[in-house]
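Dear colleague,

Following up on Tuesday's group meeting, I ran the structure prediction for the two-component complex that the binding team flagged. I've pasted the input sequences exactly as they went in, so you can double-check that nothing got truncated or mislabelled along the way. The structure tokens for the whole assembly follow below. Feel free to forward this to whoever is handling the docking comparison.

Inputs:
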Amino acid sequence: MKRRSFVQASLALGTLGGTLSMVGCATTGAIPSKAKVVVIGGGYGGATAAKYVRMLSNYQIDVVLVEPNDSFISCPISNLVIGGSKTMGDITTPYDNLKGKHGVIHARDRVTGIDAAKKTVTLAGGATIGYDKLIVSPGIDMLWNSIEGLQAASASGQILQAWKAGPETAALRRQLEAMPDGGTYAITVPLAPYRCPPGPYERASQVASYFKKAKPKSKVLILDANPDVTSKGPLFKKFWAENYAGMLEFRGNHKAVGVDAKSKTVKFETESDVKADVLNVLPDMSAGSIAMQSGLANVNNRWCDVNYLTFESKVAKDVHVIGDSVLAAPLMPKSGHMANSHGKVVAAAVVAQLSGMEVNPQPLLTNTCYSFVNDKLVVHVASVHQYVAAEKTFKTVPGSGGVSTAPNELEGIYAWNWAQNIWADTLL
Amino acid sequence: MRFRTHFAALLLSAVAAGAAHAATPQDTVKLHQRALAATCANCHGTEGRTTDGSAIPSLAGMPREYMVAQMKAFRDGTRPATVMHQLTKGLTDEQVQSVATYFSTLKR
């Protein structure tokens, strides 16, 4: 979040300085005034869509990816950086290959406006790009107003989220390292839906794993607005009881409504205040800011409703929205794996439409989500989602999917290999 | 290998772009088949090629009948698995045949 603010600030300076080029940002090649496909956001959804439009069109359709950062930093596995068993370097991949190997034009900038009528996007640096098809994959934004005082506490670096992997991930790790033994780490979880349903529980497990080794008198508190653990509940709770008893505590029905950074206190809707040495407070989340500003987030002014066959927005023609910003179909998680799956469905649909072909009438999505309960043992949840034409939505295939029987080391190996392969599938 | 494949694709696309050919029904079938096979790529690598040293196997170049048999063995539980028994239950026989056919045509 801090880095994004910095990027925005430097882009604004560039504009004020009367130049259309960006300060401190080198675009890979000139930004064209028109491209067949423009993709907003280089996360699991957008980077995959950009690469697969190129691949599935046999490199005939030109693609501009608008993404301010020069490297991708993965949210999946970032909890292991917080737990101390992986580094920032382990979860960082440069965008170079999208250009070098796949011919994607990377505009290192941020989209500030979408004109769906004129079919153009405007960049913070001043450039305008026309498109035939726009793919919007902006991830999530924090709804700061859902927790009083949080935005200021976050901006000052006192109460972090680290829910977009990046500098905050490393900063939260530093806070844990600086915390004396005997201290308390508390994470608050918003009501579902939010990004990465099992993420808070994996993070709490990682912190407990670190404390058990380095600070055994310390505590981990999960303060959850939901009544119970949202994902992989029985697996997490059994492991916590057997391995982190007396250290990790789960409290449901704790909806955070305010924070006080000075006294390191969280206030709840009904329950008593909680103080902790390291606070990790997650507010409600919404579609990414460009989707909110441009009116694409048409459901409760929060998520983007799409035609699931093509992921085309229901409010803007030739604008497709994918990833965490999408109003989820039944049992569809907001996960990196799912965003990558969205990216492929939208790429195939856009290539078909631009090439005069029939859109695939039976798209398929998969999701496999691994969670580390310590530095080696892993549990997964998997699902398969088939498009059901009669209901115009994706539904999980009856009898498919499921979870691990127990935390195990073999899936720890697979989880790390999953990460390497999905990073390569998204970016290389 | 990957570079050479990509270079060939670039050449082909340059030729195709010059000819500006209209999409054929075969092109559509192929596109849908590639999109379906891409659902395996999250774990098994783009075009079925995993990263170096991966414990998850590559699928590119796997014999078609072998892959179909493995997918069915995962599905009916005769081949033990951590996750594949749950994923294969989400695919129809036709989809299994299609992805196995596609990966069998790719170079390892």
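Chain A touches chain B through 57 residues (CB under 8 Å).

Cheers,
M.
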